[in-house]
Write a structure and sequence with these properties.
The structure holds three protein chains of three kinds. Chain A is α+β, with helices and mostly antiparallel strands. In chain A, 25% of the residues lie in helices and 26% in strands. The longest helix of chain A is centred in the middle third of the chain and has 22 residues. In chain C, strand 6 and strand 7 form a beta hairpin. The chains are: A alpha+beta, B alpha+beta, C alpha+beta. Chain B: Its main location: cytoplasm.
Amino acid sequence: MAMFSQNPIMNGPNYSFSDTPKVNAPEGARQHRFDPYTDNGGSTLAIAGKDFTIMAGDTRLTSGYSINSRYHPKVFKIGGTTADQKDASIVLSVVGFAADGEALKERLDAICKMYRYRHGKAMSVKACAQRLSTILYQKRFFPYYTYAILGGLDEEGNGAVYSYDPVGSYEREQCRAGGAAASLIMPFLDNQVNFKNQYVPGSGEGHALQERPRNPLSRTEVEILVKDAFDGAVERHIEVGDGLQMMVITKDGIEEILLPLKRD
Amino acid sequence: MDHRPQAWGRPRDDIYGAYDGSYLQTTGPKQNTQAPVVTGTSVVALKFKDGVVIAADNLASYGSLARFTDVKRLRVFLDTSVVGFGGDVSDMQYLDRHLNELAIDESYETDPSAPDAGALNAANLHKYLQKLMYKRRNDFDPLWNQILVAGLDSGSKPFLASVDLRGTAFSSPSLASGFGAALAQPIMRKYAATEEDAAKLSREDAVKVVQECMKVLYYRDARSMDKYSIAVVTKEGVELKEDEQLEKQSWAFAERIRGYGTQTV
Amino acid sequence: MFRNNYDNDSVTFSPQGRIFQVEYAAEAVKQGSVVVGITSKKHVVLVALKRNAEELSSYQKKIFAIDEHAGIAIAGLTSDARVLSNFMKQQCLGHRLTYGRDLPVRTLVDMIGAKAQQNTQQYGKRPYGVGLLIAGVDEQGPHLFEFQPSGMTEEMVAFAIGARSQMARTYLEKNLELFADCSREELIAHGLKALKESLVQDRELTIENTSVGVTGFSKADDGSTKVEQFKVFDGQEVNGWIESVADDKAAAEGESMEVDG
C-alpha cells in the first residue's frame, strides 16, 4: 500500500523532494508551455526600379482576430547618423513576429551606426544585405521570426532589393512581397513587374509565342502597382489594412508616403 | 494519510488521480514560469486632448476564484507616468519593485532644481519595459503580463502604448488588454478612431468613456469586479483614484440573454 | 640613482599621500596639444590644436563625435582616448536602444570617471594617459565636463587642457562673463582666441591644425528647439572662423598663402 509505505526502511518512497514522481501529469492533464512567437500579420512589398526602389508595407498590427494597432510601421530607414534617420539611404521592412522585427531593425541600425563611426562613411546596401544575412543566421536555432526585405540603391545607382527568409537565406531580386498576403501579391507582381505570362499578340502560337519584352517601370507606374497590390490584399486578407506606408529611395534621399487603406 | 511534505496541501490521489509532482524536481533542466497563477484581467486606456485616462479593476483572480479583491493594478512612475498591469500578479509585483528602483536611480541623475527636465518620460519607460519583456522572453523566462504605459512623450504630447509577455509593443489612441481588447476597444474606437479624434476628446468625455468600458467589462467578463482604479495623466501630473465603484449598473439586459446556462427557451 | 620607491605601480601611496603613477598620467595630459571648451546658454563648442609628428605626417585627430548630442576633445595619448571614445559610443548607443533617448551627459561622464578610477586602484593596471573635455547637450541644457586620468570629472563653464593651456585658461577667466549669452559663432570665436593664446611664438592657426566641434540647440522650422547634432569641423570648414579671429587681415592672408603652398 503506497499510502503507508513512506518509510525508507520499508523500501517505500522517501520524504525527500527528489523522490516525488518524475513523470509529468498523467495523460489528459493540461500542460501549459510558453510559446515565444506570435504572428502579427501584415504584408510588405518591395520593387526595384532603374534609379529608385520602393519599399511598402501596411500599418496594421494584429494578433489573432484582434487589431492591436492601426498604425504600426513595418518599413524603417536604417543607418542614418541620427535617431530620426534624416540622412539614411537604406530601408528595411520586416513582417511576421513584430517584437523580433523590431529587435532585428534596431540591431541592424546599431551595426550601421558603428560602421559609420569606425569607417567614417555609410554602409553600402550590398554590405548591409550581407550583414543582415549573418545576423539572421546567427540566430539559426532560435530565429527572428521575420521576413525581412532590404532596399536601397547599389553602387551604380540602380534600385536594389534583397529578400530574406527567417534564417538568413537571401538573394537580390527585382521585386518581392512578404508576410501574410505575400502569396496574394507575388503572382500579381510576377505578371506586372516581370511580365510573366505576357506575350506579344500575334507573334505565333504555343512555344512560338514571343514573350513580352521586359522594360524597367517608371516610378509612377510602380507606385500605382503598389497601391493596387495592397488594395487587392486588403480585400482578401483580414490581417492587412488600415494604412499603406511607402518609402521611395532615390539618389536625392528617401521620400515617405502614407496612404489610407480600408479599415474594415 | 500521506505524511510526506511534498504531499501536504495537495489534492488526494485517490480522488483526483496522480498529482503532477514533476515541478518539485531539482535535477534536470531549469524550468521557468510556464503559466500565470494569480491574475488580473483587463486594463483599458484612452488618449484625450491633453493626456491619457487609464483604468483597471482591483481584482486578482486565482483561476476562477476571486482571490484578492483589493489589488491595485495601476502604478505611478516618477509622478509623470502610469503603468497598468494585466496578467500574473506576482510578476506585476516584481516589475513594480523593479520600476521603483529605476525611479530612485533616475532621480539621482536629474537636477533637483528642475526635476521634470531630463527624467524618464512615459515613452522612455515604455521602451525600457519593452526591452525588459523581450529579454525575458528570449531567456524563456517571461514576465506573464500585458502592460499599458500612459503618460506624455518628449514633446509633452499624450503617450499610450502597450507591451506584452513576448515583448511585442504597439501604440494606439485607445488600448485595452485581455478581454478589454474584444469588449472595450470597440467602444473606445467609436469615440477615438484616430489620433486626430483623440486630440479632440475632452478629459470629462474620455473619463466617461473609460468608465463605461469598465462597466461593460464587469457585465461580461467573469474575472472582473465592480471596484476599480482610474488614473488621469496630464502635464500637471497624475491623478490616481484607487477605490472607485462602478455606478448606475443596469442588469436588465441579462434577462434577454439566451443560449448559455439552463434556460430551455 | 634611486629616487622614488613609490611610483612603480598605481596602487601604492607615497608617504606624502600621493600616487605617483596617477600624477605622471596627469603629466601625459600636459604633453598633449591644447584643447579648449566653452559653453553658452544654447551651445557648447570644443576647439583644438592638432599636431603632426613630423612634416611628412598627417595631423592627429583631436575631436571625436561620440553620439548625436555629445563629443570629446582629447589631450594626451590618442590611443587611450580611443578606448574611452569607443566605450562612450557603446554606452550612448546602448542607452538609446533601451530608453529611446540621448544618454544624459553627466551620466556618461560619471561612467568614464568610474572606469578610469578603477585603473588607479587595481594592481597591474595603468591609468589612462589622456585628459578629455566632454561637450554635450541634454534636457538640462549644454554641458562641458573635464575628465582627468585620476578619474576626476568636473563640470565647467569653460576650460582648457593640454600643453600651455594655462594661457588659454587665463583668456577664458578674463572673458567668463561674456560666454553665457554668446551666439554659436561668437562662442567659436572665443574658443579660437583662447586657443591662439596658447600657441608658441611664430605659430598660427591654420586650416590644417585647427579643429572645431559644436553641439547645442537650434530653432527648428516650426519654432521648436532641436538638438544640433555634434559635428566636427576640419580643413576648409574652419577657414572662415580662423579668418574671423585673425590678428589683422594681412596676417590671415599670409597664413592662407602658406597653406596653399
